[in-house]
Design a protein that fits this description.
single chain; 143 residues; alpha/beta; four-stranded mixed β-sheet; 29% strand
């Protein structure tokens, strides 16, 4: 039986080097790579990393921007990351992500408490930046 609720499918991030970006997301963030070997072999347009079974982050190379023709001005979005993408994790995974980022020398913000989000106010949250300047928030809720 199919679930017909609206879900976030993917977010496309502009990156300088998709293979390096995939490695960052795999090692520092803990997301599983998708189509990285195929991209490196020229068999896929770009690689991705899996957030969960329903959602991926596509890692689009900047050179791909001139092919963005779905809306007027789409090509102009290259190099202009969204304000931030928020990842919601269980408390243990939140702590593990922060530790992994710090182990990889990725600067992280202080811990915020009570920031509003899709599920109400988060227990804790922090921010970090990927090597291409995309900003992420990590948070967890008390369930």
């Amino acid at each position: 039986m199919r679930n017909h609720t609206t879900r976030l499918d993917h977010v496309v991030l502009w990156v300088a080097d998709p293979v390096a970006a995939a490695a960052f997301y795999e090692t520092a963030v803990g997301l599983a790579p998708v189509r990285v070997a195929e991209f490196a072999e020229g068999k896929a347009t770009f690689p991705s990393v899996r957030v969960n079974e329903d959602t991926i982050l596509d890692l689009a190379p900047h050179r791909f921007a001139d092919q963005m023709r779905m809306l007027p001005g789409s090509a102009d979005s290259a190099g202009h990351p969204v304000n931030h993408v928020c990842l919601s994790l269980p408390a243990e995974a939140f702590d593990a992500l922060r530790a992994r980022l710090e182990e990889h020398g990725v600067p992280v913000s202080g811990i915020d408490h009570g920031l509003s989000g899709a599920r109400g106010n988060a227990t804790r949250s922090f921010y970090f930046r990927d090597p291409d300047g995309n900003i992420f928030e990590a948070r967890h809720y008390d369930d």
